[in-house]
Amino acid sequence: MTGFPSDITRRQALAGFGGVSALALSGCALTSRPQGVAAAQSIGADRLLEVVAYNLLAHEPERATSLGVDTGNHAYLRTRLEDQRPEAQQAYAATLRQDLERVRAFPREGLAPETLTSLEVVESAYTTALEGFALPYGDVAVGSWRNAPYVVIQNVGSYLDMPRFMDSVHPVKSGEDADAYLARLAQFPAVMEGELVRMKAARAMGVVPPDFLLEAADRQMSQTVQSAMDGTLFTAQYRDNLAAAGMPAAYANGVERLVKGPIAEALERQLAELRTERSLAKGDAGMWAQPGGDEWYAWALKASTTTTLSPDEVHEQGLDELAALHGRMDPILKDIGYTTGTVGERMQALSEDPRYKFAPGDPGRAEIMAFINERIAWITAQMPRAFNTLVDPNLEVRRLPLAEEPGAPGAYGGAGSKDGSIPGRMWINLRTTDLHRKYDLADLTYHETIPGHVWEGEFSNRLPLIRSILAFNAFSEGWALYAEQIADELGAYDDFKVGRLGYLQSLAFRACRMVVDTGLHHKRWTREQARQFFVERNGSKYDEVVSEVDRYCSWPGQACGYKVGHSEILRQREIAQAQLGDAYAFKAFNDAVVLGGNAPLDVMGRNVARHVADVQA
């Protein structure tokens, strides 16, 4: 290990690797020099936060690569993968527990607001994650969004994550990179074995995923096994990456042997377990049907929303917000000639209008990619009207890997690496062009790219490393919905009112998610009942919500974070407007939220309060 040695991090984290930070903690006779104390305190906090960050990355080294910080003393991280064995996951929890104690013990007096925010963010993220690790089964996302009760399923597991990560994130620019690539692949079978142990342990507790999720996972893993057996898994893209870097093809020689041998064998063992589970599975969709499922769902809902809202409260809020949004959509629909039926029925009719469909097949896929890039160019030009502080994201739009498309949403996106070497990306699902319409694709683009996920991530990447690592579903997705609203307020649909319908339907869709997710996991809805709620109440496309509903079944609570977060940002904006009156500024408010970084909603509220106080001072 060439990063922070464990004996140093345990002994010196609070001391910040030096006497200056130790002075800040000791309370020794420096009262006559408060500025010196404050400076020392700040340095100590910065060093503590950095140690905490690298302690986390030691357990999740892939994130170090994604951020571009697996260099120098931390280059060893580029050769490693997260250990998925139960004992390794508990060691991860022990590290979190230790570092949480350090953060809680660090004195707050004299610290700058941004440093206070960082400490508060770590405390919140680690507290919630440890509650998740204390549950008897499942996969905990530390400062991320994908908490899952099932370690391997149709959209969870290293069989999906690893190929995408190695193909598009792990760098291949030198012989050292190639060696690290091979080292990671050599560990991959052990990673899958760790997952397999946890799958079997959960089954022994009576935790078996719904049959329809297992059927989808079987199809996808079977495809992955086949690509391993024919030698294309990892190898094909790796050869392309070598060629693009001008490196000898011989570097790929060891990859195919690993893929066709130990990796294929480990995949087949996981596939056999999925089929064993399938023989025991039932069709109940929600967590209520699993042992300890109510407790698991309560935690997942808290983790997703960063609130203490109960399932019933989330359900009712979703229904109320859905009704309000449909009230805004109704007059637009009438204005364009859709006058009869519910809002959902009229949006269904609109979705069949050939004017708003993309061509089928590859011509339509090309049309979709061109449309997205044109909208990115437009919204980028508008950013000086919405923010005082600007960034220039390195951004690309890519199609989702074919094996991932059946179980994936319509699109997702995120920022690139902290060092800028890996671009921010919008991944678009193009398994069929019928997933998208010309009136809703612009809104989806703003959500995933600018000023949504990619834009927000660029600001988080400028914060201390731990802040670039930790992300919160309610803030991430709430901001992305607010980004859609910013685009509307900047005039994105002034000349295309049908596009505004797409935007409002997007918000309504997220309100539906609150209703459906809690319906599935708390109110015992069936899978088909959940699908029909989307179709009948919101006019959603059936093909779209098939995979959506299945995603909620494997990521309980995650779908609720979007609208809860958006509504809280709007509530904070209303507070700022009321308190500042004529002194309120749209751009300044947006800066206050995004510059505060990705944070739990209560921490975000404190950032807005500080902004208001600064303006009033």
Helix run count: 25
The unreliable regions are 1-34
- Helix percentage range: 55-70%
Strand segment tally: 3
Q: Would you list the SSEs in sequence order as H and E?
A: HHHHHHHHHHHHHHHEEEHHHHHHHHHH
Q: Which strand order spans the largest sheet, edge to edge or round the barrel?
A: 1-3-2
Average of the residue pLDDT scores: 91
Q: What sort of overall outline do the alpha carbons produce when their principal axes are compared? A: globular
End-to-end span in angstroms?
50 Å
Largest sheet composition: 3 strands, mixed
Q: Structural class from helices and strands?
A: mainly alpha
Which features would summarize this protein structure in a list?
617 residues; single chain; 3 strands; mainly alpha
Describe the structure.
This protein has 617 residues and is mostly helical. It is built from 25 helices and 3 strands. Helix 14 packs across helix 21 (527-538). The protein is globular, with a radius of gyration of 24 Å.
